[in-house]
Amino acid sequence: MEDPAAPGAGNPPANGYGNGNSNDGGKGKPAAPKGRETFRSQRRESEGSVDCPTLEFEYGDTDGHAAESSELYSYTENPEFTTNRRCFEEDFKTQVQGKEWLELEEDAQKTYVMGLLDRLEVVSRERRLKVARAVLYLAQGTFGECDSEVDVLHWSRYNCFLLYQMGTFSAFLELLHMEIDNSQACSSALRKPAISIADSTELRVLLSVMYLMVENIRLERETDSYGWRRARETFRTELSFSMHNEEPFALLLFSMVTKFCSGLAPHFPIKKVLLLLWKVVMFTLGGFEQLQALKVQKREELGLPPLAEDSIQVVKSMRAASPPSYTLDLGESQLAPPPSKLRGRRGSRRQLLTKQDSLDIYNERDLFKTEEPATEEEEESAGEGERTLDGELDLLEQDPLVPPPPSQAPLSAERVAFPKGLPWTPKVRQKDIEHFLEMSRNKFIGFTLEQDTDTLVGLPRPIHESVKTLKQVTRVGSQSSGIGSHQGILAKEHKYISIADVQIKNEEELEKCPMSLGEEVVAETPCEILYQGMLCSLPQYMIALLKILLAAAPTSKAKTDSINILADVLPEEMPITVLQSMKLGIDVNRHKEIIVKSISALLLLLLKHFKLNHIYQFEYVSQHLVFANCIPLILKFFNQNILSYITAKNSSIYNSQDMEAT
């Protein structure tokens, strides 16, 4: 069993960035500017302060098995676990005498499941709900007969594979269609002034069984038998493609989301719908690991060089909830004394950290003007400025960030260093070099040379160095101790050709020669089928998801016009004690957090897969997200104490006494 990754706050190790304390020797040197102290305090807070600790997190597409299963339920649903168990035991005793479920042989278990499915096909709504609850108890792992959480998760997975092999998912899919089209339940919910968890009982039971089946079958383990592996692939195919002239299952869930947001079905348990939709998309299209494998495979098919790194692994190594330290160093250098007062030998090095236009160094500098000798006060200011650099000056002496004046020899390719802290390999497209040269030629020459990245006549030296950096060749390998001897040198350019560039070029060629090239052959992949099904109603889908995300966003303003996303968490009877109110408040916050997690993960997964499938699909989805004000909505989440929001403990422990009190 995988342990859920619970975010926790730990004390980070002490870093080697000091404050530059210097011994003034009682000479009465001028104090450092106040702005510089501000940046130092910000750097201390971001790197080692107790107020802003380093988060222990794991970047991935899902949490652990136990955490993902528990997030399906709310604390308000706790009494229903007992109801599910009672329904199962009552039905099981009428069919099997003197034995428990775990004591039965596999054939006897299959026979009992077939009987349950037969009893689902009854007219009585109450009897059908009792049988569905018995199936849900099996999918939950028959916890009444288990001794530990590990046993519950094991038997939940075993029972879900057994239920799928007996055709349970198809039977529950038909029942889900019936509940979606149930106009009586919709009209009853519309007439009520306040919708509670009792209005969505049947839907919650059906969606819970389907979610547990998808989540348990989706997980791959090394100990899985051949039958389970084959059942997983069959299940993935059924969910990905249209079976029996029906739309893919994900489109049905998308239609439930739009129907809920339109106000036609306010009783839908939207959290369970979103969780199931997210897991279905992940199961059919693939998670981060499958996405990376598809990217590598597609680059091989297009004849592109392999990727230098895995972007997901790079993100996993990045720090959380705090900016990189080099951005604060850059801001500190901007508040340094002006370069004109640092003319001494040591002050010239201080200029390297000052943010300025490199064109001013080489073009606006008066070469015929004689510099005045520096005064004693200026020398002291230069010495004070250098002391604030601490140990960073030694790095500048080794790897300068700005090219030297024209009088010196140009830097070699090995000497050009990129800013410390970039976690990924630099990538430069041919289009980026052409765009940079076009702007530079327009500024300094007045005309451009299209598709020419070699002619640099008339451009100043900094432009030459910039183009050289963009075209730089990095050497990866081992160098022996002998002079001039290299072993294992591998040349690799920064110039990067993406899959999107190839797709755009192919589209341009098809547009120029539609008759000669003919119609493009599009592979019927699960991603392509999903996009084709979503295309007609794609704007409505994106708007509906963002509406729900807005309703779950943390804000101090009352949202009277927003949709009600708490229909599947509010109990029939509102709390009357302080303890009940506190538990309900925790449940509501947890409910909103899970909704935010499912929508953000779903959107991220769709964007990644659509971008890999075709860049224009990604742009179309992104365009509608921008039209629906997705960017301001995301900024609303970051416009707060993000560390407190992430580390909020929206969980509670219900014991038997608390449940009896409620």
UniProtKB/TrEMBL annotation:
Biased composition, class Basic and acidic residues, residue ranges: 34-47
Composition-biased stretches (Low complexity): 1-16
Top-level taxon in the UniProt lineage: Eukaryota
Region (Disordered): 1-61, 325-349, 364-387
Residue stretches making up the Far11/STRP C-terminal domain: 460-661
Xref: InterPro entries: Far11/STRP, Far11/STRP_C, Far11/STRP_N
Domain Far11/STRP N-terminal positions: 52-358
Pfam family, one: DUF3402
Bias (Acidic residues): 373-383
Family classification: Belongs to the STRIP family.
PANTHER family, A to Z: PROTEIN REQUIRED FOR HYPHAL ANASTOMOSIS HAM-2, STRIATIN-INTERACTING PROTEIN 2
Protein's name in the database: Striatin-interacting protein 2 isoform X4
Source species of the chain: Balaenoptera acutorostrata (Common minke whale)
Lineage: Eukaryota, Metazoa, Chordata, Craniata, Vertebrata
Gene: STRIP2
